[in-house]
Design goal:
The chain folds into 2 domains: 7-122; 127-394, no CATH class. 29% of the residues lie in helices and 23% in strands. It has 9 helices and 17 strands. The radius of gyration is 24 Å and the shape is elongated.
């Protein structure tokens, strides 16, 4: 599927995410914001009960030195950001929106000033990055969908991709990755078929094929190789893994393995999965202990001991051991799945097998993708109140070169 950049890709980001606006004044005399918001408002169309972190506008707010607000209204992009303040004559005021200074002025003798600011060009580099990323993500998803539909392999859009389909009908405007999940049986079929079946510009990357004995995680991926995009996906193995992987955008494949109905056996299995992951960390090129300082004492000790021990264990043994642990209940009839190669803090999360029986197809942008049979039940388990927007600090691309964190 050849997907063209759509004009609205460059403008939808802040309509959905909102504008972080900061007003600063020099000196101690209080400043009153008489109005801060769109010149011509359209906020009546928005459902603010689903986004408790933003407001449509601010009126009658007094502050000293600094005031911050998160505004969301399509009118801001279309008609401009209007700021009207009252303050002591000579007060210097500056206004930032989304981290960029958009205006600065000195209050005149009348003690009141009003400005209208065009914000349509804000954060152009970020918007261009996301437009580029989204185009490639759609190419990756369309290729995975083509192969799975051709060979009768069931896959399911999960996490942020599924959330975007339900909430936006598209990829979440600030998101820069997309994930699918498959049962172990379907994944094994896909694993055999994909290397030869993938079209030009796509490559299947098994988690054990990083090169140089490197370990990133237990995630298998499809890469788009025709274009490079700066990112941090392979940061932990940079310099140790194959150079041809760097800056190629992936689609991640999560594996659904059977979770024991016995809670104690499930807990033991999760403990073993975390343990073998810790061994694998010994085969990374970069291991930053500082990233774990915010974790509890036993986690910090375990990470240090297991990663040190893992250096003496061949990487291929670690991958083999992980598969054996994750499939230890494969021949049993159980009620739930768990995502065995998923994020460690949530590895224990159980998902009903009924949610992944058959599935449906749902619109995502210009295409359709397969989703769980009960998409809402899955999202409630993955995100709890999934229909609520995240805090403003989380509405950022998490795989850009500047993004940080433990992964």
């Amino acid at each position: 599927m050849e997907r063209q950049d759509r004009g609205e890709d460059m403008v939808d980001l802040f309509d959905a995410r909102g504008y972080d606006v900061t007003v600063n004044s020099l000196g101690d005399p209080p400043v009153t914001i008489q109005y801060l918001g769109a010149v011509r408002t359209e906020h009546a169309e928005l459902l603010y009960d689903e986004d408790p972190y933003v407001v449509s506008h601010v009126e009658g707010q007094e502050f000293t030195r600094e005031f911050q607000a998160s505004l969301k209204d399509p009118g801001i992009r279309k008609s401009g950001l209007r700021i009207k303040i009252a303050a002591k004559a000579g007060t210097e005021v500056s206004v930032k929106a989304c981290g960029e200074e958009v205006c600065a002025f000195t209050v005149g003798e009348e003690g009141q000033e009003e400005r209208t600011v065009d914000v349509s060009g804000l954060c152009r580099q970020e918007r261009e990055y996301l437009a580029h990323i989204h185009r490639i993500l759609y190419l990756l998803l369309a290729e995975a969908d083509r192969i799975c539909e051709k060979h009768g392999i069931s896959y399911f859009l999960v996490f942020g991709g599924l959330l975007g389909a339900l909430r936006h009908g598209d990829i979440i405007p600030w998101d820069d990755d997309i994930d699918i999940a498959m049962t172990r049986a379907d994944f094994q079929r896909f694993q055999k078929i994909a290397p030869a079946e993938l079209g030009e510009g796509f490559r299947y990357l098994d988690c054990s094929e990083m090169g140089g004995g490197a370990f990133l995680d237990f995630m298998c991926r499809i890469l788009y190789t025709k274009e490079t995009v700066p990112g941090n996906v392979f940061r932990k193995v940079r310099g140790k893994c194959r150079k041809d992987l760097e800056n190629h955008l992936p689609l991640d494949i999560f594996i659904l393995d059977k979770a024991s109905d016995n809670p104690y056996r499930h807990k033991l299995q999760m403990l073993l999965v975390r343990g073998v992951y810790g061994l694998g960390m010994g085969h990374r090129a970069i291991f930053c202990r500082e990233e774990y300082q915010c974790r509890d004492f036993w986690t910090r000790i375990s990470v240090r001991l297991l990663s040190g021990l893992g250096k003496a264990v061949p990487a291929k043994c670690i991958f083999w051991l992980h598969d054996r642990i994750c499939t230890m209940h494969e021949k049993k009839e159980t009620k739930d799945y768990f995502m065995s190669n998923g994020f460690l803090p949530f590895i224990h999360t159980r998902y009903s097998r009924e949610w992944f029986q058959g599935g449906n197809r749902m619109k995502l942008g210009d295409m359709e993708a397969r989703v769980p049979a009960d998409a809402e039940a899955y999202l409630k388990r993955a995100y709890y109140e999934y229909y609520h927007y995240p805090p403003m600090c989380k509405r950022i691309p998490e795989h850009s070169p500047d993004a940080e964190g433990v992964f």
